[in-house]
Amino acid sequence: MTTSAQARPSDPHGVQADPHGVRTAPQRLSVLGATGSIGESTLDLVQRNTERFEVVALSACRNAARLAELARTHRAKIAVIGDPAQFAELKDLLSGSGTRAACGPEALIEAASEPTDCTMAAIVGAAGLAPTFAAARQGGRIALANKECLVSAGEVFLKEIAASGAELIPVDSEHSAAFQALAGSDPKALERIVLTASGGPFRTWDIERLSRAVPEEALQHPNWRMGRKISIDSATMMNKGLEVIEAFHLFPVTHEQIDIVVHPQSVVHCLVFYSDGSVLAQLGPPDMRSPISYALSWPTRMRTPVERLDLVKLGSLTFEAPDEVRFPAVRVAREALARGGAAPCILNAANEEAVAAYLDKRIGFLDIATKVAATIEAAESRGMIVDLASLGDVLAADSESRKLAQSLL
Ligand code: NAD
Ligand code: MG
After folding, report:
1. Is 124 in the pocket of ligand 1 (CB under 6 A)?
2. Which domains does the chain have, with CATH numbers?
3. pLDDT in tens, 7-28
């Protein structure tokens, strides 16, 4: 990956930095998941810097009207909709625009394979795996928001990146922060990485109240505006578990070297501890346009409209230990990482199914982590925790785990 100075010393994923750091031609950019929270934030930055970007492909799952609007605004070459029922509307809305309309998973992979300088991989969930792999294969930069590529497909995805010579730059705020705090450092001097967590909307709730928490409450994140799935993951703190797995694959650390600290203000995004006692942290307002801009413009920086931090106004930043009794999801995720093989993929698939069931009010809030843990146990007893060698293996494990999770829900 791109952490040229920071990549695991033993692995081949070091990616060549652009030694000059200055682009002359506009950057050809595709945004997979253009209508989502990350996709919209990315295109907001593009719109403020039109001379820097040339939009190649945009994709969405169902919202044809918004996709067409974005494609027209950004003069995209291709717009792909996932849902066949929306294709006629998309074609209609794009007629005469110069944007080619396409539909379905195959068309999405084809569009993701179009040559670009950068792909923003911002589809939510395992649905983002195949298109992000396709984007990686064409060899440009992958600005990675879709954490599932690292959680479900870790080594397989990194191998793909290394083979194609693509650059991998993290978008997740904590990982972008670590990437920034690691820049130019000696990987041997790295002691630990501390990911911060806001604690979500239920940080101060007791177990009894958590057992009654409804999706409308869980979706109210105190600091970040995000998609529904990741908002629920933030409430259960599974998001932090997924992020530990993400950090493990991105940076030269063991899982014991990745810690979590609850920081309700979401201003410090990550801290890197070095062997001389120094700690480097990255701070910024909770606005994804900051880490997105960094992934788009690294190794340079891009001006963004994010609110500037006012430390005096903030007054204090606080930190707490995470509570694994009320929020067991982090422990479940760590155990899956320690088990290795398909376990993180099973974890992710089971969690996607459990979150969907919770959003449909088929299970309670506390059942999410319990069902995920039960799915992993059941998968283990069925001999499903095997090594995954290819994207095909990952997709098969994902699909089998979903069926198993559904049978337990
Ligand atoms: P979102 O739900 O707001 O948007 C998801 C996008 O993916 C939409 O464009 C949707 O149309 C598309 N999509 C959904 N299902 C699809 C399918 N089956 N096929 C094709 N496209 C599909 O999600 P988001 O909050 O923008 O998150 C996107 C990714 O970024 C997730 O993996 C999330 O974990 C990660 N992430 C998000 C944030 C954030 O602040 N939102 C922060 C860090 C990481
Ligand atoms: Mg994050």
Report:
1. yes
2. 27-170 (3.40.50.720)
3. 332 333 333 334 444 557 899 9
